[in-house]
Protein 1
Amino acid sequence: MTGDRSRAILTWVVDHPAPIDEGPLRRVERELPVPGPGQVRVRVSCCGVCRTDLHLCEGDLVPRRPGAAPGHEVVGVVDALGSAGGRFAIGDRIGVPWLASTDGRCDACRRGAENLCVSPRFTGWDVDGGYADHCLVEEAYAYGLSDALTDEQAAPLLCAGIIGYRSLLRAEVPPGGALGLYGFGGSAHLTAQLALHLGLRVHVLTRGEANQQLARELGADSVGPADGEPPEPLDGAILFAPAGELVPVAMRALAPGGTLAVAGIWLSDIPALHYETELFHERQLRSVTANTRADGEEFLRLAARFGIRATTTAYPMSEAPRALSDLAHGRFGGAAVLHN
């Protein structure tokens, strides 16, 4: 192992879960982390701001331990190695994603469904994430990054992009079919680009003029309000907005046999569904739970192939609370990225 134990780093931590404008984050000084076996340390260049970070700060997701450091769309450079590794070298540019580790032994892991592992760990929830100067990662769960992407462009791909890709798979839209996207933030605007490249018709239903304008600029086939009606029955849909009241709305918009995939890790309560109008004719409602490493590798290949690009708003790392507040209040379109 190589590394300097004497240095200190600055890290944002969830001091006390509360509405983001009430200051749940606190910036603290901590010891420079030292990588263990199979780990590498990353000097953080930037970190994407995900709605999951907001849920953690506000207590929708209960912190798994005191003083958790959020952030799981991390881009940086390896600057220390633990023992028993070898996948990465000092100076390599890598990405640190949401999925931090799995047990590799449970039934789900053995059948290739590691996103359903019974004892997973997640970056920025179970282990400290990238709202910091440095973080650690199990090198088996990190991604090498293409030089074609800037750090700021790469960061949102590591969760928003990957989860959007898995959600698209779960929606099971047939070739040339109609896809509905409910909500149009960091994940949806990347999913829309991929879906359009794959030849799908994309109908965006979202609140906020900035999000609606971004959808138009990216070439969506139609854009309307979140509770609106798309111009044609949907073969599949993805709910990105954490709003359970939109589930019946989206289910009614599905064609017979269509599927609604709920992309978020947290969702407000779903109103009662009416069987005849919202579930009959084999309409399906399903969740999306994390992702596999294979999902991540495949999405990053497709993103490079099709030139998927994030629309980003940059913030200095020192202004993480403002970035999360702006996310909560819909003050930007696309994705926010914190820079060291």
Note: The chain has a mean pLDDT of 95.
Protein 2
Amino acid sequence: MVRKKKMSTAELLIDNLKLNIGNITSLIESKGADAFGDDNLLSGEEIEDYSLEFLELFVGILHTQDLVSDKSNKESHEYKALISFFNNCSEEIQIRGGTMDLFVSYMHFLQTSLIEGLHDDTSMTMSQYREVLLMMASLFNDMTLNVFEIYLGEKEFTIKAQQEELLQTSTPITEIWDGVLTLPIIGSLDSSRTMVVMEKLLQKIESERSRMVVIDVTGVMTIDSQVAHHLIQMMRAVKLMGATPIITGIRPEIARALTNLNIDLGDVVTRATLSEGLKEAFRYLNVTVSTKD
């Protein structure tokens, strides 16, 4: 007597999909129209194309399931292809004004459509039905997490790029006169910002052969030992490049803070305003600026 081979959970689901592909496809398209149709995010044809592509890729994943553990191989080409499909779909929805929440809803009704398709399968026992549901839940949980990880990774990359761009543009270095640079500092100086500003400043000193650098700290609201340390580092770097630094805009509260912290700016020239600092730089270079009659 030949015993019938016991089917794996993945094989049971594949058979169910083959038997009910028409009903499942209709369910997915109907739910997709309800979700995206009102906002005109996806057309009926696009929803149909997405549905058919999803089912094809999903069946491909089921064929790679381990027959013993019923776990999917996340390194397989089929699994990566389905994750790529979801990412592309998510990006398309967001480009058209949709949200990530809407896309998660899309993944949810894909899952519920598959579950509703199982209801019509009378060939499975209750135990098999439960195993298929558990496997499907595990698959969709893994896929949702993977999509979110990629989404958050892209978000983090975008935020970092924006922060870097802001760092590059928030501290403009301007050659106000031949040999004279001005550097207005607004906000606080942390280590990362100091490195960016210092690198740009030293490059500018070298390229313009600058002899005077007027650093205006009027926009620095508070100062602590760390900010003062970064400021002193900048002064020393300017001097090592052969230029003379002038600090302007030190307000009374900043002066008191520097005194309380026992911060000695050494022989750094300081002036009350940017205008006074520029006059000092011009005097140093023997440049006379006068009003034309």
Note: The first strand starts at residue 174 and ends at 177.
Protein 3
Amino acid sequence: MAQFSPSVRLGLLGGGQLGRMLLQAAIDFDLRLAVLDPDPDAPCAAIAPEFKRGSFRDFQTVYEFGRDLDVLTIEIESVNLEALKRLRDAGVRVYPQPEIVEIIQDKRLQKQFFRDHQLPTADFVLTENKADVRQNTAFLPAFHKLGKGGYDGRGVQRIASEDDFDKAFDEPGVLEKAVDFEKELAVIVARSESGQVACFPTIEMVFHPEANLVEYLFAPAEISPEVDQQAQQIAIRTAEAFGIVGLLAVELFLTKTRGDGPGTILINEVAPRPHNSGHHTLRANDVSQYEQHLRAILGWPLGDTTACLPAAMVNLLGEPGYEGVARYEGMETLLAMPGVHPFLYGKKLTKPFRKMGHVTVIDKTMDSLKEKVKRVQASIKVVS
């Protein structure tokens, strides 16, 4: 176990909203986090003790940024892996490990990893081009996903029948069998350098029907204790199969029941970093996902993940039809509600469905929590 030291030289690739919240957690420990991002107006830029403008995809930029650090981490997967490997070989502690990021960057490798390690996931076929997809009529309905480059619902097409084949991507991808699911769940699990593992409570996600990203979530998920235990164990097995140091967000499907049998848990995909499905932990849990990530990568004891109260998280998305300097209509209404905590990401410009912030909502019961979420959604709009 590493000795606590605020003087550790800690770096972050990516200066978006996840990095901003990681920075805020680092300040509590007097850590001075250096950030690399190509956008001079990135959410981290105004508050990072050290902010360097540059591409986290460029080998030389990443190597120069990281070579004087003790520990380097990420808030986005699309980083230069060769630079991370070279820095690791030079003695910098790089977490999550570059080989893990390499697998997760490519959905083809990710799905094959699940299969190779007997981790439950939907059936799939690897495809090289659009013609390959056309050879799999009997596999439909399915989703065609780009191997690399997809993010927040982009790079995914539903192929329900032969009529949809033109939607397929003409580059390497994975054709994944459509899952008849009852709920979409997620578990954030942390694993430390020493192998200590801790899970946050299982949460339930609801996706925006048009934008295909999380609209809101509830924690804990309304599932049976048996399903909850199954979800937690799958998350732990996945983290241990990777051998990851840091956070791993494991997105899951709970399939619909068949006859008298319960639904089963399948892994959808994973992310090796803080995640949208853990934002609520900033107010709802004894330790947030951001503090837990720092504890894991710095070799400190993992924190208590106990939930203090039932919670929800509502994403603040840019309203359709608005693009320009952001304004937040209804913020005064939110601020007057007890148990409602807005977090704004510092993005100057809004556009339709852009993630501009989130609202954590807490309450004593799940019924009152759901009613409060409806009031939050009706009260706030991000316009220009």
Note: The CA atoms of residues 57 and 78 lie 7 Å apart.
